[in-house]
Design goal:
Elements: H1 2-12, H2 14-17, H3 32-41, H4 43-59, H5 69-86, H6 94-111, H7 117-139, H8 145-169, H9 176-196
Helix pairs in contact: 1-9, 3-8, 4-5, 4-6, 4-8, 4-9, 5-7, 5-8, 6-7, 6-9
Length: about 200
C-alpha cells in the first residue's frame, strides 16, 4: 500500500516538475533504452499514459477484456502517430492537443466516467495520435528511429500497466486518491494550455 501511495503522490506532484515537451531531452535519441526512458522524462507523456491505465482500471466492469481497451487504443494510435511523424506528416495544434489530452484524461479519472469499450479506445486513440506525432517528429532523420520507437512503445505499455495496477488496487477503497491524482493531471493540462496561449 505504501508503494501505491508513493506512486499517486508522484503523479499528483507532476505539475510541479512539468517541463515543456519540446526539447525535454534535447532531441537526442539513441536506440531502445533511450526510447524507453523518453516518456519517463516528459511529464506530459508520463501523466497521460499513467492516467489511461488508471481510468481503465477504475471504470472496468471486469478485468478481462475491459481493462485493456483504452490502453490498447492509446498504444496502437501512438504507434500510428509516431510512424506518421517519422514520415513528416504535419498536424495542427500538436502541443495544445497533448495538453488537452491531460485535461480530458484527468477529468475522466476524477469523474470515473465509464464509456463503451470502443468509444474509450477511440477517445484516447485520438489524443495518442498527437503524442505519437510529437515523438515521431523528434525521431525524424535518426538512424536508430525504429529501435527508439520500440523503446517508447514498451515504456507506454509499462506506464499503462502501472496505472492499471494502482487503479485496480484502489477500486474498493481510497477512492479519493485516484480522484486527487486525476485532478492533478487535469490541472497540469490546464497549466500547459495556459502556457501555450
Amino acid at each position: 500500500m505504501r508503494f501505491y501511495r508513493s506512486a499517486l503522490a508522484l503523479l499528483a506532484a507532476l505539475p510541479l516538475v512539468a517541463s515543456a515537451h519540446p526539447g525535454v531531452d534535447g532531441g537526442h535519441h539513441h536506440g531502445f533504452v533511450a526510447g524507453f526512458f523518453h516518456p519517463l522524462t516528459g511529464a506530459d507523456h508520463l501523466a497521460a499514459m499513467v492516467a489511461v491505465g488508471l481510468w481503465s482500471a477504475l471504470t472496468a466492469r471486469r478485468a478481462w477484456p475491459d481493462l485493456l481497451w483504452a490502453p490498447l487504443g492509446f498504444s496502437v494510435m501512438l504507434l500510428a502517430g509516431a510512424v506518421a511523424g517519422l514520415g513528416d506528416v504535419q498536424l495542427p495544434a500538436v502541443e495544445p492537443m497533448i495538453a488537452a489530452s491531460l485535461l480530458v484524461l484527468g477529468l475522466l479519472v476524477v469523474t470515473q466516467r465509464r464509456l463503451p469499450a470502443l468509444a474509450a479506445a477511440a477517445l484516447v486513440g485520438v489524443f495518442a495520435v498527437f503524442h505519437g506525432i510529437a515523438h515521431g517528429q523528434e525521431l525524424a532523420g535518426e538512424s536508430a528511429a525504429a529501435m527508439t520507437l520500440a523503446g517508447m512503445l514498451a515504456a507506454t505499455v509499462a506506464l499503462h500497466g502501472a496505472g492499471i495496477a494502482v487503479g485496480w488496487s484502489l477500486r474498493q477503497s481510497h477512492r479519493w486518491l485516484p480522484r486527487l491524482a486525476g485532478a492533478a493531471v487535469a490541472m497540469f493540462g490546464v497549466a500547459l494550455l495556459g502556457g501555450l496561449a
